[in-house]
Structure formats: C-alpha cells, structure tokens
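Reopening this ticket.

The earlier resolution said the output was attached, but the attachment link was broken on my side. Pasting everything inline this time so it's all in one place.
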Amino acid sequence: MLRLAARLLLLILFTVPVLPASALGSFDGEAGIFTWVADTNDYIDLGINTNSVGGYAEGWWDHGWGARASLYRVAEDDVVMAPDEQIVIDITHRLLSLTDNTFLAAGLGWEQNRFGAEGSVSGLRLAGEGRLGVLGALYIYGAGGWAPNMGGLGLRKDLSSISVEAGAVIDPLPFLSLRVAWRYHITDYTGDITGTRAREANYGLVFGGGIHW
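Inline output:
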C-alpha cells in the first residue's frame, strides 16, 4: 500500500506544473481512488484486492486546458499476456464547452503498460473525452485513448493499445464524487515467432470516488 500511495502522490503532483502558471487563476481539480474489477482473456482468478486499486488526479484551467493522470491495476498473478498495470497521462483542450460537466475535449497523452516481470512499454497516445450533465449533481461521460506505437517486449512486437471507458459520476456532497464505469483496454501485437497479430483485453467495472474543488 505504501508503494501505491507513493505512485498516486506522484500522479497528483504531475498535474500541477504541466500547464502555464498564467492559467492557474481559474482551476478546478479532482483526485481519488478506485478499484477495477477486471476480467481478461487469461484470467486465472477474479477478485478485489489491493493489487486492483488505482487512482486518478485531474485539473481544468479556465474551462479550457486540462490534465489527467490515472493508474489502472490488476493482480499480476492473474494475467499471462495482458498488461497488469497502465499509467496514463493526458493533456486535453475543450473543443466545445457548454457547462462544467457538458463538453467535448481532445488532446495528446502518454501511456505505459507493464507486463509483470517482463517489463514495460510506453508511447504517445491520442485522447478524447466527452461529458453530458444530466442533473446538477450527475453527469455521464465517455473517454478513450489510442497508443498506436509502443514498441516491442519479449515475444511481442509492434505493440499498440486502445482504451475506452464510459460511466456516470454523482456528487452526493459538494466536495465528494462517486463514480461507476465500464472500462475496456485492448493490447494488440504481432507475435515475434509466429508473425501473426494477436489481441489481449482487460475489461470490467470501475468504481470508486474522490474529492473535488
């Protein structure tokens, strides 16, 4: 848990300096934790434990530029060829912004996928997000990213990934947010020996909460 707390702290701290200081006059932020009850092509067991706990931190400046960092994890022993951890950092800009919770945004980011003791791969990604405010305290959202070139690792080469997440967020208190969503993460690669394309997927419910200001 100490290692997880340290990683979440680094993710939260990252969101502060990435944008110009002149934009800090109007800043909205949120940070929290969640668990990803994921299933995968290669799962041996399925359950909720500390290895499936991740976190996120995000900030919006002047309802225009935004930064988000997220950590998704599943138990390393429960996967074979699929990644057991993803770290995602995105910087986006609102293309359309009607209210705080009704907007469309797109931008660029960076993603790292860890495959247990084999190591990690990383690469740039395209990112997008949309929100629709339903009530004052409720909104639905969809977010996704595509990392087309993450290199190779072990018996995998030409790695790429696609992630999609959709869900709902409700604010039961002015400073508290609760969320539930469905997340699908696909890893595509070419087998180094066979030369054929293969796909591994993690998918399942994400639920948790955080504080916002």
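Reporter confirms the inline version is readable. Residues 2-212 form a domain with the Lipocalin fold (CATH 2.40.128). Residues 43 and 78 are 5 Å apart (CA to CA).
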